[in-house]
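Final report, closing paragraph on structural work. Over the funding period we assembled a curated collection of sequence-structure pairs, and we close with a single example.
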Amino acid sequence: MTTTDSAQPALLRPADPEAPFDEAFLDAPHAVLGWFREHRPVAEVRLPNGLSAWMLTRDDHVRSALADQRLVHDTRRFPEAWQSLDWNSPAGDMISAYGRNLSSADSPEHEGYHSAVAGAFTARRAEELRPLVQRTVNSLLDRLPTDEPVDLLGQFAVPLSVNVMCEIVGVPESDRPVYLDFVRHTVSIDDDHDTGALQASAMRSFELLAAYVADRKSTPHHDLMADVVDLAAKNDIPDEDVVTVLFHLFVAGFDTTGAFIGNMVEGLLERPELMAALREGPGRVPSAVEEFLRFDGSARMGVWRFAAEDIQIGDRRIPAGSLVIVSLAAANRDSARFAEADTLDPDRDDNAGHLAFGRGRHRCTGAALARVETEVAVTTLIRRHPELRLAADRDVLRRRVVITLNGRRRLPVLLGPAASPKSDTLPAPALDD
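Its predicted structure, as stored:
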């Protein structure tokens, strides 16, 4: 059985196309991005942090840019972009200004960093981690009340991604609340604008990682951090870059996966027939995950890129030194690439070609793990709590103000009674309630 949407969102022209990231964009990002894709597919825009950038929204332009080696990532070549770092900007912006990482390095440096971590995130390794993910999901759900509202993001999806990533990397349970606190600050900054608390939380996370790296240089360990430290020593990678590479992995693994789980659950709550179909046929969940990644993935934009030379894209000439952002979300809704692109169809044949994780050498390292986490989280949640429903009117739900990330600030739900007895679990993850 195919379950699809029928509504087609109208395009929305921003009040100021040169500065389009306003409240209207936050309320209807796909409609605004769709307007750019239709009318200004290569557009010079002003970002909320004041930087000027060229935004690409068509599928063919985005795919070409993702593979174009003239678009570079090394922020050291363009230091003026980071002179006034804005702590209200995305976490990815923060870490791009410090040291080297998978998003801010080019060949051959990037390959060195990638080889240090890639082995821990293969599809095979992600499948091996499925039992760990399942136990973590069970443990988190066991702790949540079923008869009062809970924030599915803050109390389930984000703690899941934090604890799984910490387990992979080698962060002791006693320190994991520090990283959960950092992710929570990146969300709460939308409400209280406490940039000082966010910066302090980020610095504390950096300090802990620096201590772990120093410890693994002097004491044998058997975890991903030890592997990265050993490989870095062989390739003369400085400790600062090791810390930043690890922090980059954390941010990418924590925030985007948690946000996407929330997007998919919200999407299913809007489509009860599809949720029922997946509950009765869990074998369809992987395909549904792929379609939700295309339709409502958590990454609106790819990582920063700079034009190393003048580049012609479409009918526009992008001058050397310009900042370029590619809209993965807009490309994934391009009807030139996907039939009925604004329709969610979990049975479509062409959803495997989506760009939710990017493309090429900078494709998301943790894509396979994100898929496994989402499959396990969604399957367990909707089968265990068949009466799951929103605990707030949809019109009061607010999106994150981060333009690069697509997700809610909170997702209040009522779980409802469990359909079966609680599962046996490992000791509860270390969370700060």
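The domain at 23-414 is CATH 1.10.630.10 (Cytochrome p450). The longest strand covers residues 42-46. We thank the funder for supporting this effort.
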